[in-house]
């Protein structure tokens, strides 16, 4: 195995609490999230017995377990979402609801720390007998919620529950103790979060141990015992440090790599680094859709074979797109490379965002790239991981905007608003972005430092952007600092207290042709403008039936921003290969009007009159 | 042979005298043309005996013919250039010089109208014995100069000479008279010009007859008799109405098709229409360089086989690029299709413009797309068609900006300035363009009509542009009128006396990959931004040797306008495939500084980290 020598950047994230988003794109979505999505998810958790399960397990009320064994996790994820929402804006009512639920959760914890209401209520004697029953998966989400709620409110109750649970795991499992391969990864990344807030080394070490358990035949339970799935489904086929290929269930895989990146941030293990590079390449270079979607197969909710990217039957679970953000955000911090932030962006504006309706109360679990009109968002699912993942992903989206690089700031995502970042030196810097991104590629950055000082600002030039202009204090940058390094322009200088950067990213309409290996898309094109992937939706193109439109790679498109349409979208209008008018809307916005077909990859019209060169 | 049904648009050109160019790109070039190029060409014509030949032939002075048999044409082309210059701005001194030369020309005309100083002085008994000796080619340029000078000054002297010459041709040649296939086309398009100014039908009919003479075995003379060339060299291998393929000498071919388009404008002959469509496709789809250059071979100054587009040895005569403008301008008027104006633009900003130095006094005859550093512009050539073609092409460049479509105006080329156009209805319209084109894709058009009236404005959306925005009176166009038809947005409406159109053309950096058929460019990329094709020049990239740079199709480039460099150019800066800084400048501007290598097609760097789709 060749070692890839990579210097770790070990950038630090900038919490979303330091980032104020005031724009036309995300701000309304954050409002809807708080006003509609979180209450809707709470109501659903209540209605479906998810919350009551805790009261039952705690003996507060009578009754049997309701639902599926991983349902606890949804409640935790909603609490995590509430915590993020509270961090941005206090809401005593919402907080009171969370407190009430946390009391129920705490009541359900057994005296030794164990917490998973399914086993407590249904089969207490069968704990830890089936690695597929999401005991630690539930626990991981509890920990994430606990850390978030502690950071939001300073209240320790849920954090204490989480620590007690983690300590319970640590008692049972580890070197010289019992083996354990958790079927659905999640606990591993959660334990690193718990380590970060408690500074207890044992938590990240337990995470590392759990990671290292995989691939050595320690797994058992219903999944491992079936021929159909096998250990690759749970990423248990090879030791994690030998990982070369992305396999199995997509969300599990992403949570695993997220945890590996987290652990590398602490351990710096070069084997892990190499494995992460390999599996990242394998994921994005061979197994990612243009929307950022991953995991084409409904069968295993996951990966099949390389370049297998069917459109109509694309599974592309919303959670997997969100998990790609988690992983790629970590990779960006770890390696200081913009290509990971490119993927974060692709998911933010496409694969993940498509999962939620504009109204905030309907969700996609599955995100195909083509539909004949029979696929629609719904308010809830029996397995409702996707709505609750959106409920915690969206309110924390500001965290992907910036990174603190030590003696500098990396601007990863462009959105109108401002951020406060503190350098390692202690210098505070306020950055103010004025932009209409993602609809326009112009970004003005006001740099306000506590005092005039030397530091670096790294501006991400997105992978979709071929040409850019950049001025500092009204003057063009001309030297090497104007050229990208790992996808960033690095502006090193002594900044005065009030400086400006003007960045202009070319944001043309881009016609994308698939690699020849992607058989499904041969003879097809897709359209992207800036970070936004477009689709045809029937309502705008009702004259023709599904897949009747063709489009020439040399056709021109009118770029028209329609503030009243679909929450404000830039549509693209042109003529198809037969000269018929057609209109493209952002993919994320589909299925928000009357139902009909949708297509991302359009048949490519025969090119006429191409030049010879 | 399949007939292509094409409706003729028969748009009318808008003379450059109605177009004021006030921009940073063309205006300085027009100044240099007048101050430097025209005087330099006059001086060279004088020094090389080109002007004296007329005085000798007229018996005003003693002496033998000096130079090459087609040298008369250079003097005519300079007078044509002077005429255009006078139309834009009176210059009594320049006019006096022209008058003096015209007197010499008139003196050289024989009593029967014959005029070609080579034969008069050297071999009067051998007139019309060799179709390759450019007798009518010279005559054609005389006619073009005469028409221009008449239109510029109202003076008929040269026009009378021209008519007498044309009548002489008409006496000798035509149905029932002698056959003639002029080796180098030019007379045919000139005769249509003469028809347009005199309204004498016989001139365009003689042009048609001359066109129809080709391809029937009537040609003879040194070219036809050699095995090496054969009739295809002179486009005499097939009757013009059967033309399917571009062949032979590039300038000759272009002048032929220009004349065919001129004649169709009068005759509407569907066979000619079909032939023009076929040969246009064959030219631009299989035999045109990215710079617009045509005619790859030095050997025949012309075409070889399809997709034979070598870079270092590219011949790409400047005259051929200029002639492509002539032809494509006519095609645009004839068919009302922007794709022809696209080619005009490609030549204007690349293939043709490269022919002249920024100082206006040095010229390329040959325009390779790669040079190891040994190819430079010079002040003059023995065969100096290119400098004198530039001398008449540049001062009339405003004529390519607009067309009058009958009840509308087509905006073909964008340049800061204004134009006055009169509709068929008699309505006068002033259009004012405010733009930094070609460096920026934003164009503001002020529309000032004599009175509020209904008419159409057609805005060309260049072929290189995938996305555009357009507003009329500050409002987005949303209907079908906002979509392109034959490459134009057609805005039909009642215009008030003061209206505005805002057009924004996406002008991204475009990475061009050649068709697989172009073997020379396999594994290479070229860079274009807006209409400008870029190149690497050694001075900016001196660290490495010729062809040592590679470039990734996914690399980003800084777009930087440098007003002080090369007359003001937008340069593109980035890193090559090995991470070394590199800079691209517009191709037209190469070889204006210290000598060194140049390349348009750069080796393509291996793509790293491509996405799977």
Automatic annotation (TrEMBL), chains A, B:
Residues 409-507 form the Non-reducing end beta-L-arabinofuranosidase-like GH127 middle domain. Residues 509-603 form the Non-reducing end beta-L-arabinofuranosidase-like GH127 C-terminal domain. SUPFAM superfamilies: Six-hairpin glycosidases. InterPro entries: 6-hairpin_glycosidase_sf (IPR008928), Beta-AFase-like (IPR049174), Beta-AFase-like_GH127_C (IPR049049), Beta-AFase-like_GH127_cat (IPR012878), Beta-AFase-like_GH127_middle (IPR049046). Pfam families: Beta-AFase-like_GH127_cat, Glyco_hydro127C, Glyco_hydro127M. Residues 18-398 form the Non-reducing end beta-L-arabinofuranosidase-like GH127 catalytic domain. This is Glycoside hydrolase family 127 protein. It comes from Paenibacillus borealis.
């Amino acid at each position: 195995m060749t070692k890839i020598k990579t210097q770790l950047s070990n950038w630090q994230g900038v919490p979303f609490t330091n980032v104020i988003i005031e724009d036309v794109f995300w701000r309304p979505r954050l409002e809807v999230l708080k006003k509609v999505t979180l209450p809707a998810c709470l109501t659903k958790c209540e209605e479906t017995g998810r919350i009551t399960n805790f009261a039952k397990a705690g003996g507060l009320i009578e009754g049997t377990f309701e639902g599926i064994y991983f349902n606890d996790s949804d409640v935790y994820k909603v609490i995590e979402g509430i915590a993020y929402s509270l961090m941005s804006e206090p809401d005593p009512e919402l907080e009171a609801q969370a407190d009430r639920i946390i009391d129920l959760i705490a009541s359900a914890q057994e005296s030794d720390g164990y917490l998973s209401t399914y086993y407590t209520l249904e089969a207490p004697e069968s704990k830890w007998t089936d690695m597929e029953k999401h005991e630690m998966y539930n626990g991981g989400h509890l920990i994430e919620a606990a850390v978030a709620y502690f950071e939001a409110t300073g209240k320790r109750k849920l954090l204490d529950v989480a620590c007690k649970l983690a300590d319970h795991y640590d008692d049972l499992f580890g070197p010289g103790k019992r083996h354990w391969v958790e079927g659905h990864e999640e606990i591993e990344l959660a334990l690193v979060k718990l380590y970060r807030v408690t500074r207890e080394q044992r938590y990240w070490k337990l995470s590392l141990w759990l990671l290292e358990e995989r691939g050595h035949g320690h797994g058992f339970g219903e999944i491992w015992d079936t021929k159909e799935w096998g250990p690759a489904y749970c990423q248990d086929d090879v030791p994690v440090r030998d990982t070369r290929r992305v396999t199995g269930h997509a969300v599990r895989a992403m949570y695993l790599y997220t945890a590996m990146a987290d652990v590398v941030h602490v351990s710096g293990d070069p084997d892990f680094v190499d494995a992460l590079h390999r599996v990242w390449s394998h994921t994005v270079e061979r197994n990612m859709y243009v929307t950022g979607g991953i995991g084409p197969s409904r069968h295993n909710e996951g990966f099949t074979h390389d370049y297998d990217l069917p459109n109509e039957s694309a599974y592309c679970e919303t959670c997997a797109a969100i998990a790609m953000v988690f992983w790629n955000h970590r990779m960006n911090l770890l390696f200081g490379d913009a290509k990971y932030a490119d993927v974060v962006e692709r998911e933010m504006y496409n694969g993940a965002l498509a999962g939620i309706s504009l109204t905030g109360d309907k969700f996609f679990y599955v995100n195909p790239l083509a539909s004949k009109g029979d696929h629609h968002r719904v308010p809830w699912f029996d397995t409702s991981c996707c709505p609750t993942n959106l409920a915690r992903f969206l309110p924390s989206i500001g965290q992907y905007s910036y990174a603190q690089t030590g003696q500098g700031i990396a601007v990863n995502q462009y959105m109108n608003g401002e951020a406060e970042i503190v350098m390692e030196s202690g210098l505070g810097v306020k950055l103010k972005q004025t932009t209409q991104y993602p609809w326009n590629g112009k970004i003005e950055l006001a740099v306000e430092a506590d005092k005039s000082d030397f530091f670096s600002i790294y501006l991400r030039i997105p992978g979709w952007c071929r040409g850019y202009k950049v001025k500092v204090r009204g003057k063009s940058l001309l030297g090497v600092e104007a050229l990208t390094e790992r996808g960033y322009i690095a502006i090193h200088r002594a900044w005065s207290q009030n400086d400006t950067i003007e960045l202009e990213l070319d944001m043309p309409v881009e016609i994308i042709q698939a690699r020849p290996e992607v058989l499904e898309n041969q003879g097809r094109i897709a359209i992207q403008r800036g970070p936004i992937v477009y689709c045809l939706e029937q309502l705008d193109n009702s004259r023709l039936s599904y897949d009747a439109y063709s489009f020439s790679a040399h056709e021109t498109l009118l770029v028209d921003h329609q503030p009243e349409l679909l929450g404000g979208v830039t549509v693209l209008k042109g003529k198809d290969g037969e000269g018929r008018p057609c209109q493209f809307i952002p993919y994320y916005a589909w299925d928000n009007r009357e139902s009909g077909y949708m297509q991302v990859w359009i048949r490519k019209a025969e090119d006429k009159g191409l030049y010879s060169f």
